[in-house]
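Researcher: Sequence recovery benchmark, item below. Answer with residues only.
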């Protein structure tokens, strides 16, 4: 990690790529990428897009926007129905087309090798080969020390981001929910070092509180477990919309010390009562700032079926926005992410594709979070 801006900008130019390019392809989705680049840069030629994107990084420190978009096009940490790697490209396009009033600085996408998850699972030989592929280093004696796996690169970039730009925040677009591990870890470490008390507001149908899944400790079902140590206290992880769990609410709260508000409670008591209770808890705990991690499957599957694990009996977009609005009126939202939109999964709705509906609702919530971060 470097707190020297010139060194960090060089790292960004190596480890990131222009928005929408995080999925490595030859021709697949070429037209979609070009359409996004035309909107963002008024250009489609890849070499010119690369040059414009790199030049734009010079303006990041002085940008008036506090919200900085980072795309992480990886679904290697998922494992049910894949396809969330396309989320950053298509959600950005939907934001531009449907939420044009929402502005943020777009830092680009993490460069992804789609077979990898975290560097700790790799041997030295694999890391060297992947460094050659990502960073074009042919001489073994001149290898970059940059990481190569999506979670490792994301954490390294986020650590440097908060060291250099502590008054800005990252809005992460995934990708599967394992990506929230490095996003929140870097955020929480930075805030802790500055004496800021934080809480994570986690919207999801699932608890993501496994210790490991099939022998892998960092994945979409376990990331929450491994960020608890970086929170001021475990109860500062507040989960909303839970409904698909093999264990009762009491198990998760008693085992981990976190706080949950299940989907049926929102339906029975109303979203306003639920958020009033959350605000009261946060004020008692003297929380200063919030990070919001939003898994799109927190929404009922009629609104969010283009995802790896759609679930019925979930929240409505209006309920989610009511809760977010009430929270943002009481606490600064200084970091956030939108995860698990898988745009090319099969349609389950008639007349309008599941992708269109899911992207539309995901863009609404993303726009609200970006605007809240910019306040």
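Model:
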């Amino acid at each position: 990690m470097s707190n020297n801006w010139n060194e960090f900008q060089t790292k960004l130019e190596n480890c990131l790529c222009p928005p929408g390019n995080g999925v490595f392809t030859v021709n697949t989705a070429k037209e979609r990428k070009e359409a996004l680049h035309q909107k963002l840069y008024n250009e489609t030629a890849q070499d010119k897009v690369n040059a414009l994107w790199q030049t734009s990084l010079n303006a990041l420190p002085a940008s008036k926007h506090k919200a900085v978009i980072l795309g992480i096009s990886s679904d290697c940490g998922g494992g049910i129905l894949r396809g969330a790697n396309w989320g950053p490209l298509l959600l950005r396009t939907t934001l531009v087309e449907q939420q044009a009033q929402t502005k943020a600085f777009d830092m680009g996408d993490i460069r992804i090798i789609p077979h990898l998850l975290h560097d700790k699972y790799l041997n030295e030989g694999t890391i060297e080969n992947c460094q050659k592929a990502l960073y074009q280093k042919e001489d073994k004696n001149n290898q970059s020390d940059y990481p190569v796996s999506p979670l490792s690169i994301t954490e390294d970039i986020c650590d440097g981001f908060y060291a250099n730009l502590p008054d800005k925040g990252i809005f992460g677009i995934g990708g599967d929910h394992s990506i929230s591990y490095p996003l929140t870890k870097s955020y929480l470490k930075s805030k802790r070092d500055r004496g800021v008390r934080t809480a994570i507001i986690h919207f999801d149908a699932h608890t993501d509180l496994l210790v490991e899944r099939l022998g892998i400790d960092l994945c979409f079902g376990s990331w929450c477990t491994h960020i608890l140590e970086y929170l001021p206290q475990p109860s500062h992880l507040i989960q909303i919309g839970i409904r698909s769990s093999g264990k009762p609410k009491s198990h998760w709260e008693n085992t981990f010390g976190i706080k949950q508000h299940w989907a049926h409670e929102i339906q029975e008591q109303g979203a306003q009562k639920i958020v009033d209770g959350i605000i009261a808890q946060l004020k008692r705990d003297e929380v200063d700032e919030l990070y919001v991690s939003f898994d799109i499957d927190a929404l009922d599957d009629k609104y969010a079926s283009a995802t790896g694990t759609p679930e019925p009996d979930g929240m409505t977009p209006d309920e989610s926005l009511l809760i977010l609005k009430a929270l943002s009126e009481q606490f600064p939202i200084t970091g956030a992410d939108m995860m698990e939109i898988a745009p090319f999964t099969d349609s389950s709705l008639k007349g309008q594709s599941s992708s269109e509906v899911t992207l539309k609702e995901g863009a609404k919530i993303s726009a609200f979070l970006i605007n809240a971060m910019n306040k």
